[in-house]
Amino acid sequence: MFTRKIKELIIERALLLSALITILTTLGIIWVLLSESFAFFKVVSLWDFLTDPEWTPLFTQKHYGILSLVCGTILTTGIAILVAVPSGLTIAVYLNEYSTKRMRNIVKPLLEILAAIPSIVYGFFALIVITPVLQYFFPSVSGFNALSAGIVMGIMIIPFISSLSEDVLNAVPNSLREASYGMGATKFQTSFKVLVPAASSGIIASIILAISRAIGETMIVAIAAGQQPNLTLNPTVPIETITAYIVQVSLGDVPQGSIAYKTIFAAGLTLFVFTFILNNISFWVNKKFKQQYV
Amino acid sequence: MDLQFLSETEPAVKTIGKNLTQEKQFMAREEKLAKKEKKHYALESHMLNAWYGEKKILNDINMKIEANTITALIGPSGCGKSTFLRLFNRMNDYIPIFRKTGDILVDGEDVYQKRIRIEELRKSVGMVFQKANPFPKSIYENVAYGLRIQGEKRKSVLDLAVEKSLHQASLWDEVKDDLKKNAMALSGGQQQRLCIARALAVEPSVLLMDEPASALDPHSTHRVESLILELKEKYTILIVTHNLHQASRVSDYTGFFYLGDLVEFNNTKDLFTHPKKEQTENYISGKFG
User: Fold this and answer.
1) Which residues of chain B from 30 to 89 reach within 8 Å of chain A, CB to CB?
2) A188 CB near a chain B CB, below 8 Å?
3) Which spans in B40-88 are helix H?
4) Chain B within 8 Å of A182 (Cβ-Cβ)?
5) CB of B151 within 8 Å of any CB in chain A?
6) Which uninterrupted H or E stretch holds B208?
7) Cα(A194)–Cα(A188) distance, rounded to whole angstroms?
8) In a domain, B11, yes or no
9) Is B108 left (phi over 0), alpha (psi -120 to 50) or beta?
10) A28-37, long-range: CB within 8 Å, 24+ apart, which pairs?
């Protein structure tokens, strides 16, 4: 009896500890980000950080304008979303409403493999396959560019959208399908006029999750998009994303404690703010627009 | 001599010919009449058998239903009455293991023919389901849905159809001021009447109702029932119900299903007062079911 109580207590504490570890890690990361960034902002004003059009912390003529990195991130992410949303949604609707159950059970796991491929493989795929193909059609495309990286990143995040959207489409009550078919609607009309709108909150959440993934993606953009901070929306020239910059600096021989070292944390904090906002939007959308079917 | 014979017989031949054409015309007229006679039945089933996989659901169902009547299908759960109802707009098509033999006719036409477009069929055979299933859209968009998917874009036409259908479903007065409101916010009874309005908006000739009032409170049930009675003027209504009182209140004809058989089919009054079969009597007197 007594030993049993001890056992229970040990198990309970162990569970609590593992829960605490994750929370403490998160808090630790936020603390490091904030404190190092604080040191950074003592040297560089927040105003310069947000408005300076150039980002050259490693050059002699130093500029600390995060905008050009943010621009690179937005550009590659935007291209990725343009690729992933239409195809992911089409796949989801196809699997949900058109394909047989067997087909769905085969195709869905296969698609999810796309997300399991190491992103460095995607990076090289972009660099040595997609970029030459793009250059074949548009000779002006440079060897490193946002377009190639964005397209490949879009392919990578397709399963985020297709799989999750298919799940939410599948969760739409059958009674709505019956209502639509009973009115003489075709599969296409039922899918896009009833099911997709009814599942919109889940679909939007899946898209936001995919955006978060694209914003945080590092390897593909570091390899294929170049490492040249560039305040441009032209997808054919080299750019640099926030993540690619962090890799670049982390791999280099930047002395710890220097201002260049601290830029990593300022850039990381910016990234964190982005994904944090997106996560909250996703949470809010889900809560606000979730349709309750009683 | 021979020639003369010929010329003598000629009028006779002519007469025969004339008679033949007359006969043909007569036959054609007969056929037309027969067709008209057939048209008289809005819904028909001939030797209808149905299975779910290996399980037999319906046995040799023969039924003829006249236009502008209300026919109630009663029977214990699992007797096949809902399956039977769903044959008329082919809603069973979505069940992969479902198969059937025999014919289902709507307005004299076999609806399981290859050339029948299922979408067209469902425009003339509307359906109201057991559980109110409005779309998570506005009241207006719910009612306009059927016309919109047919490609109707003119706002004036849609406005008119929405108002008319909501009137027909006696819901207009309750919702006319907030047509933009989400349909999910309506009460259960209002939602069901909205679903009826939605079905009526495409002006079907037949309305199939699968226990339309089973999930409603008595007051809403009463409203839906009186609505059904009003709709009889324009529509042929086939209604599945568990509620025997409802069947006797609203229907002209009643069919009693038991274990996949159509045990008895008669006008409602006779079926309830003088059932011919013992099973029917047992069921309506509450001995089983």
Assistant:
1) 89
2) no
3) 81-87
4) yes
5) no
6) strand B206-210
7) 10
8) no
9) left
10) A30/A272, A32/A265, A33/A265, A33/A268, A33/A269, A33/A272, A34/A269, A36/A262, A36/A264, A36/A265, A36/A266, A37/A262, A37/A265, A37/A266, A37/A268, A37/A269
**Residues A160-187: pLDDT tens digits?**
999 999 999 999 999 999 999 999 999 9
pLDDT tens per residue, range A76-132: 999 999 999 999 999 999 999 999 889 999 999 999 888 889 999 999 999 999 999
The residue type at B254: T
A21 CB contacts (<8 Å, ≥6 apart)?
Answer: none
Instruction: State how far the Cα of B235 lies from the Cα of B125, in Å rounded to an integer.
Output: 10
Residue B1, domain member (yes or no): no
The reported pTM is 0.80
> Per the CATH hierarchy, to which homologous superfamily does domain A67-289 belong?
MetI-like (1.10.3720.10)
Task: For B6-44, write each residue's pLDDT tens digit.
Answer: 555 555 555 555 666 666 676 666 666 655 554 568 899
Pairing of strands B109-110, B98-106: antiparallel
Q: State phi, psi for B78 to the nearest 5 degrees.
A: 80, 15
Q: Is residue B248 part of a domain?
A: yes
Structure tokens that stand for B250 in this block: 């609203």
The CATH code of the domain that includes B231 is 3.40.50.300
Cβ–Cβ under 8 Å, residues A192 and A165: no
Q: Which B positions 104-123 lie with beta carbon below 8 A of chain A?
A: 118-123
Structural domain of B45: 40-284
Q: Where are the domains of chain A?
A: 2-43, 67-289
Q: How many domains does chain B have?
A: 1
Which residue of A104, A183, A190, A290 to mutate against B (max B Cβ within 10 Å)?
A183
ipTM: 0.81
Query: Measured over all CA atoms, what is the biggest interatomic distance in chain B, rounded to whole angstroms?
Result: 97
A181/B94 touch (CB, cutoff 8 Å), yes or no: yes
Q: Which residue from B219, B258, B253 is spatially nearest to B239, judged by alpha carbons?
A: B253
Out of A183, A186, A194, name the one closest to residue B146 (CB).
Answer: A183
Does the beta-carbon distance from A178 to B133 stay under 8 Å? yes
